[in-house]
Amino acid sequence: MHAQVTGRPVANSQLQPFEITTKECCQSCRSKFSGERTGGQPVQKLPLRCSNSCLTGHNILMCGPPGAGKSMLAARLPSILPPLLPQELLEVSMIQSVGGLLAGGALTDRRPFRAPHHSASMAALVGGGINARPGEVSLAHHGVLFLDELPEFQPQVLDSLRQPLETGEVAIARANRRVTYPARFQLVAAMNPCRCGRAAEPGYACKRAPNAQCMAQYQARLSGPLLDRIDLQIDVPAVSAADLMLPPPAEGSAEAAARVARARAVQQQRYAALGAAGVSTNAACPAGLVNDVAQPDAAGLKVLREAADAMRLTARGFHRVLKLARTLADLDGDTKVGRIHVAEALSYRSREVADG
């Protein structure tokens, strides 16, 4: 497309470059939850440091009964996460343009939030089709991919997430070409403890099978390698009437966003000093740098070695514990990863990881 220029330039004048900031073009794109307080639940039900770690890019799986607030908490993430950096904005805009989502050329510095239905196919999730279009994992690049009712997805569809979660990109091969899209996203997943969602309730007898068996069969739909890539695996308790009548928490989205921005700034400066291109959070730290930035002290190393044997940690799990421990140390303002940080990081890997 060509634009017609009218008028004549003034002699000896210098044309100034036109600049547009994301602040100017994104005010209408802010989350409808921005500044909103979530009532007495569910934020107060989550460990504060756990939610802080989630907001600094670590993958999280929330398990709890229906109505516990898992989906509501995930929906508020875009209003709390920091805006996209200029390079991130460029990458996200390019992917959205290829995917046909950049309506009218409008830009937004809000991090993507994608929430596909559990009936989504593998092509919809990782990309594909005749034209090798980007899937949900690429459309969530530098943002959040929220998978609600995680065990309801087809197992082979979930396992297709393993490569992008590890490498931050996804390759789509066709007969005459091969396309690689970036897919550096944060996985936020939610699930019920069983198919009916009530097996963990005291005094409830599941009609399908004994409660423990019902829960085990349902959760077995998640493969060990997928769980091994999730740093935070937490239980969200049910909401009681007393919880609903609690006053709103003192901290709303604006305050939480400022806290997250400070934590991310520390990590961003760390990796910039190390010359790690494209890395701005501990969650995205490559394996080759983990020992340099997250080496625990002697007491922490002892705890980690003992837990590695007792919990049968894989090499991937070992590194993910270290990266999460580094984030917890950052939240405490500590330059060194200590025993308490390692122990807390291990406590969030509570679900059994099966071999596979």
From TrEMBL:
Transmembrane domains' residue ranges: none
Source domain of life: Bacteria
Gene Ontology MF annotations: ATP binding
Domain AAA+ ATPase, first and last residues per copy: 56-240
Alphabetized InterPro entries for the sequence: AAA+_ATPase, CHLI-like, Mg_chelat-rel_C, Mg_chelatse_chII-like_cat_dom, P-loop_NTPase
Pfam families xrefs: Mg_chelatase, Mg_chelatase_C
Name of the protein in question: AAA family ATPase
